[in-house]
Write a structure and sequence with these properties.
2 helices, single chain, alpha+beta, Jelly Rolls
């Protein structure tokens, strides 16, 4: 007589959301040059471009990552490093077969005092992200200017079913990347002394079977 065996109960983390975060210690000199380039470009704009969904958040042209400058080349390299890490986490061994397209778009955003960005997604891209050049002044007690990553599960509004909002502090030289479909927002900055300056980016890739 054979005794049937049953698998032990398990709890598995299904559909985890990969979040990339890195701080680059060599960033200071590059950040000075990037801030200078961005502010010059915005000053040359005939009309200020307000970021859609943003409150007093000013946007540069979307070709910043094509500019010919050593600081931009440095930034592009780190963005592709983030994309490689994210693709490997999301696709495993299949990541080596990915065909990466050139960075679709990258743009600078400057936030003055009180500027913020409403919840939104970058639904048409594979990976979205931000690189902080100058966080402005911050008060960690109020989360000013923090990037907030929102729980993507529709039912997570129920009590105790969500781990809550993930808050990431803007720090000079910090890069954050996440799936383009992840809902996120930016808290209002409290900076009164200088602008908060960052570069946002979208990267798309295709994988075997047409995954994008």
């Amino acid at each position: 007589m054979t005794t049937a065996t049953h698998p032990r109960p398990t709890v598995s983390p299904i559909w985890p959301v990969p979040i990339y975060q890195a701080d680059f210690p060599e960033a200071a000199a590059y950040n000075v040059a990037l801030a200078e380039l961005i502010l010059l470009q915005q000053a040359a704009q005939e009309q200020p471009v307000i970021l859609p969904g943003g409150l007093d958040a000013r946007k540069s042209s979307e070709d910043i990552l094509t500019w010919e400058h050593p600081a931009v080349t440095w930034l592009r390299g780190h963005i592709m490093g983030a994309v490689t890490a994210m693709a490997t986490d999301m696709l495993g061994d299949a990541a080596q077969h990915i065909t990466a397209r050139p960075i679709a778009e990258g743009w600078a955003v400057t936030y003055a005092e009180g500027a913020s960005l409403l919840p939104h997604t970058h639904h048409s891209t594979s990976i979205a992200g931000v690189y902080y050049i100058d966080p402005g002044t911050t008060d960690s007690g109020q989360d000013p200017g923090f990037l907030q990553l929102l729980d993507p599960r529709p039912g997570a509004v129920a009590r105790d079913s969500s781990s809550g909002v993930i808050r990431i502090q803007p720090v000079a030289g910090r890069m954050v990347a996440f799936p383009g479909w992840l809902n996120h927002q930016v808290r209002a900055t409290a900076s009164k002394e200088r602008l908060r300056i960052c570069v946002a980016f979208n990267v798309s890739f295709t994988a075997p079977g047409g995954m994008a």
